[in-house]
Every structure is written in structure tokens, then in C-alpha cells.
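Ticket #4471: structure output looks truncated?

Reporter: J.K.
Steps to reproduce: submitted the chain below (101 residues) through the standard prediction queue, then opened the result file.
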Amino acid sequence: MEEIAESINLITRKPGVRGGRPCIKGTGLRVTDIVVAMRYHERTPEQIAEGFQVSLAGVYAALTYYNLHKDEIDADIVQQIEKARDLRDRGVGSKRPSLLS
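Returned output as attached by the reporter:
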């Protein structure tokens, strides 16, 4: 019997949606959002799925995507943090405490 490679297509990119960044299919939830929730907010996949109201399969698909594209996603996260710091330093946005302090 021939081996068949299966693919779970739960991560999509769409121009005009979240800057074309990879998102969980059917949502605007970016892979970077999942990674940041785990890395900086110490959330479990189950907590992320519940908090963002997405499937656990979608969260794991995002984590798999991250592991396959780590350099790209990490660079995007750094870029987002730098942009947020710049906006904060210019007095734009919320006065809430953040990861940028």
C-alpha cells in the first residue's frame, strides 16, 4: 500500500486580513497571538482555546505552524513589539500595563 500524506488545513493567510499573517482558519486569530499567549502570558493550549473561543485543534495547528516557521514568526513578534513600543513612546494607545515595560 502506498503511503498517503495527510494535511490538516487549519492555518490560512488572506491578503487584507490581519496583514496577511497566518491565522487560525475562520478567525482573525494570528499564529503570533497564540505564541505570545503561551510565551509571555504562560497560557496552556486549553486556556488559549477557551479564552479565544477557538478549537483546541486550531491552537495546536498554530503551534505546529509556528514550529515549522519559527524564524519568520519570531521576527514578526519582535516587529510587533517594536511597533507597540514606538506607539507607546509617542503616547498613542492604552495606558494599561503591557509586556513592553
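Triage note (M.O.): checked the attachment and the full C-alpha cell line is present. DSSP finds four helices and two strands in the chain.
Status: closed, working as intended.
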